[in-house]
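tmp note - Transcriptional repressor
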Amino acid sequence: MTHAKTTYQFEDLLDKHQLKKTAPRLRVLSMMYSKNTATSQPDLESVMHDIDRVTLYRILNVFEEKGIIHKVFDLNGTANYAICHSNCGAHKHHDEHVHFNCTNCKNVYCLNELTLPALNLPGGFKAEGFTLYASGLCSKCSKKAN
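out:
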């Protein structure tokens, strides 16, 4: 995929969510889509030196509110962000999948391909979403350990 086509797709995504197409928003989307792991705000700050901390915080916040990204916590309790599926919307996330925390490299992976069991709650309870965490060695770290 060419850079121009990627930028065009990110602009469409921002249009879909009624967000202005700013250079910082497009850069954050590009960075997040290029990773196969969730990423934290400090990690983004370390590679996006021209976007200040407050602007980055606001971008992540509005992306989460609009259903573009979702928040997942790592083993240290640090918030990480990952791209949502297309069926997420404003204030309504549908990212009920396993989040895998690697105990070696500390990366957080969204395992979207795993089917989760039905959640049978007691009477009167109504789930609006849930998160399932697993921890251990990711495929890269597991290969290195062998």
